[in-house]
Amino acid sequence: MPEQYSLEDDPQLVSFHSLWKQCLAELESRVRPLSFQNFLQPLKLEKVHGGVVTFAALGTFAGDWVRSKHAADMEEILSRLAGRPIQVVVEDVPNERSNVPEQRQTSIPQERVQTAASEAIRFQPDDSKTFDTFIQGANSQLAYAACRAVADGRSGVHNPLFLYGPSGCGKTHLLHAICHEIRSSGRGVVVAYTTAQQFTEDYVLAIQSRSVETFRRRIRKADVWLMDDVQYLKGRHKTEDEVYHIFNAMKQEGRLIVMVSDRSPQDLIGTDVRLRSRLQEGLMADITYPDTLTRQAIVLSKARAAALELDPEIAYLIAGEIGGSVRYLEGALNRIVTMAQVMETPVSRDWVADILARHYANISPGLPPFNAILENVAEHCGVHAREVMGTGRRQNIALARHITVYLTREIRRESWKQIGTQLGGKDHTTMMHGHNKIKGMLERDAGFRRDIDDLIRRITDDNA
Q: Over pLDDT 90: what percentage of the chain?
């Protein structure tokens, strides 16, 4: 059994401490400055036991933060630097056990706290994201109309408004459009915009500096509160609790709330059930990927904004070749515009078709194919993909089948019938049962939830 050492006793640990410094330098370039200064820099290297490296974090908040947001990156960087697999363990310790200088723990400047807490109020929306530049389609009509009602101050029945759908469908665009419209109306309405991640970081900073009441007031004084990426609140229980109480207070005072997520409130597995219930009290509007004609209109609009007169036939070609997230569409158009300007080349149909063939022939529409989900789940569960497709009832096969159903539904948003057909012609009630079984396991078992999160990350990373 490998012997354990303290940093002071063993030269090997002194050497590993050098690796940690290199790791910190790389992490600094990846994360926001406040996260690095308040959570990563203060970590103390405690011990090494085989391939397990243990760090001490200053309290539960810091420990939870590092485990949920940075541990995976730490493991990846340290494993690469050490030339062997490294597992990172982060333990929560009282502040007095840390050797971090006292000023880091207690002397966060008050003006910095006030700045962080007021960022939501001072947020400047993207000038290109307005209602005028948003291209409506069948995929977004309800969401667009509801957001216009919020911006016009006539959405009492829509409170809260909850928008959901996959990445790259225009949800964030609509939030920015609301902010633009309200601020240009001259009605004196105060609007606050924040992402769930920004809210979490600022809330933790407020706790550390004992300025929570100031933080709350700066959100609650807004007449309209917009929050993006609500799914990132999952597992951050104290932050969820804070959002819940601010939500209740603002709604009782008649203030408007719009929240956005990549999934519906019912599917925000692991999120506080009270908050999920509140999110369903108003209007829920989903946004899906636009159809080809809507995508064509988006391409033509973006081209005009870039001072490029594009033939509608060419726009239709681009829209038809590149599916999924609108961001892929914008990226392709940006490449075409840039190449046309640099090469001083006319934008002809054949020239664009050649660019698409050379650079976007294998582009993913942003969703992993069913086979990628099936094969990754089968490997994870130690079975063959053909067994998952079959009728075997052995426990690990049945579990793999249920997970495949759940992930296909969550990632690809397919119907029960579509999923059943791909799994060998199984009926939709069986698919629903499998999905509900995994959903229940995720709510009860934190370890299983981490396994599924890792599996989702592996599937989506392979598809990136």
A: 25
Last residue in a domain, options 250, 266, 286: 286
The verdict on whether omega for the bond into residue 160 sits within 30 degrees of 0, i.e. cis, is: yes
Give the separation between CA 298 and CA 137, rounded to whole angstroms: 10
373-412 pLDDT tens trace: 998 898 888 888 888 998 888 888 999 999 999 998 877 7
**Domain boundary residue, one of 52, 84, 106:** 106
Do 282 and 179 fall within a single domain?
yes
Between vectors from CA 420 to CA 419 and to CA 425, what angle results, nearest 5°? 140
Tokens 């900073």 appear where? Answer: 205
* pLDDT recorded at residue 299: 93
**Beta-sheet strands, E only, within 202-296:** 224-228, 256-261, 283-286
Cβ–Cβ < 8 Å for 176, 6: no
Q: Report whether 90 contacts 61 (CB < 8 A).
A: no
pLDDT in tens, 54-89: 999 877 667 777 888 889 889 999 998 888 889 999
| Structural contact between residues 388 and 378, judged by C-beta atoms closer than 8 angstroms | yes
CA dihedral 30, 31, 32, 37 (to 10 degrees): -120
Q: What is the CATH number of the domain that holds 135?
A: 3.40.50.300
CA dist 460 and 408 (Å) reads 12
Nearest-5° Cα angle at 383, 453 to 464: 40
User: What's the pLDDT at 122?
Assistant: 62
Same domain, 244 and 302: no
Domain CATH number, residue 406: 1.10.1750.10
The band of 11, judged by pLDDT with boundaries at 50, 70 and 90, is: low
In a domain, 365, yes or no: no
Query: Is 114 inside any structural domain?
Result: no
387 and 298: one domain?
A: no
With bands split at pLDDT 50, 70 and 90, how would you rate the model's confidence at 362? low
pTM for the model stands at 0.57
Query: How many CB atoms are closer than 10 A to CB 462?
Result: 11
Complete edge-to-edge strand list for the sheet that includes strand 5-6:
5-6, 44-49, 52-58, 87-93
Asked whether residue 111 is domain-assigned, the answer is: no
133 and 279 belong to one structural domain: yes
In a 3-state reduction of DSSP, which class is residue 277? Answer: helix
Report whether 282 contacts 126 (CB < 8 A). Answer: no
- 364 belongs to a structural domain: no
Q: What integer pLDDT is reported at residue 132 of this predicted model?
A: 93
Count of domains observed in the chain: 4
Question: What pLDDT is attached to residue 256?
Answer: 92
Domain with 301 in it: 292-359
Residues 336 and 385 in one domain: no
**Does an H or E element contain 5, and which?**
strand 5-6
